[in-house]
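Quick one, T. Sequence first:
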Amino acid sequence: MNKLLAALIAGTFALGSIAAMADDKTPAQPVDQAKLKADREAAKAAKAQMTPEEKSAAKKAKRKQKQQEEAQVEKVGNIPSGPQKAEALKKNVDATKGDPKALPDAKAKQEALKETTKKAGPGQ
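Structure tokens:
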């Protein structure tokens, strides 16, 4: 009974600490809503005063900028491709060349263990 009670108390403390950590939320950085609203209103007013030619030029410029950004992402990208992928694979292979090979069965593991203990010698 005492063991059960001790386990129950330990579990309660564990769950209580998890709940306390989950509840630990830091407040978000304060944002100046008035400034954001003023910027939005100024942008609306500037867009309303644009002529149709200026609006179409702005659309073209925005479209061109977006295409350049997409081309940059395709060129560099998050996922390496082509030569970048080959370089990444080569680095990975070079880094893992010195790693020991996996042993197929328990007998081979025991033999490897005996060899390492012989190399280390007594007292190490």
